[in-house]
Description:
The chain is mainly α. The chain has 14 helices and three strands.
Amino acid sequence: xxxxxxxxxxxxxxxxxxxxxxxVAQGDPYSLPKLPYAYNALEPAIDAxxxxxxxxxxxxxxxxxxxxxxxxxxxxxxTFDELMLYAGEIDEAIRNNGGGHYNHTLFWNILGQGKPFNxxxxxxxxVVTTFGSYDSLTTLLSKAGASxxxxxxxxxxxxxxxxxxxxxxxxxxxxxxxxxxxxxxxVLGIDVWEHAYYLKYQNKRGDYLSALxxxxxxxxxxxxxxxxxxxxxxxxxxxxxxTGLQDYHVVMSQTFHPAEEGDLKPIKARSGEMVEKxxxxxxxxxxxxxxxxxxxxxxxxxxxxxxxxxxxxxxxASDKAITDRLTKLHDTFHIIQGLCRH
Length: 342
Ligand code: MN
């Protein structure tokens, strides 16, 4: 047997070391989660072949394409929550495949046999309080799924007001996204893409929906519900759907950032609008998690500060005086909004 020379062993070891390093350095940020049951676990409601293709082909492709789309680097430092929350700002490929990854991960998670609806669980009590009964909920979910034109999802979500709601979104969007017609954290999602049912149910989406609703793992839904209620993401959604704050934010970012660069035209043109938005913010209702003395004081300071900036603009004060006051106002704003993203 031919033995390896010392130098070739070193060469081989070095090559191997760099290969390992390479894998670590280029490791994909997202991976296909393990399916928590066998492909045939949901038979006869969902057949094994549909499950296998859905999971190992469709979901796998979303993960692969998401990783590929993130390779451009532009959004690689964004958290997954940020990719979802601000989906309207990012590349369509990341929105679609990121949504596909999130939605399917949730979908596998909330399916399973033998875990029926329990009216005395936390989510069970909330369902009865909100919709009257389990049957009313399933009617709403079936309607949401059946009336979604083309591909999309039907959802049971926790809203920023901490209530349950049913709604639907197109394509691979979901209610975490800023582009969604309804906002909240999904606790149950129903895939109404044809790839989810066509092999067994063909065009009969209604039959698929009733079968699917019989294999919901309500223990998992209950866990999703209790987790969502205490999540930081829900607080973020409260802030992102706080219209008064976001309206003020638009004027602030479109005037302060140019002023930082020495361009005072925007603030000189819009200081009056800034006062209006600050007043609207103060007069509107404050989301529960933000209803604190500290935030209320910051909102009062925002009104006072916006009025001061407006007065400086009106009396044609120096650019420096306006910029200094606006900078202070921007700091006050971020007591409420949190730090600027990116
Ligand atoms: Mn699907």
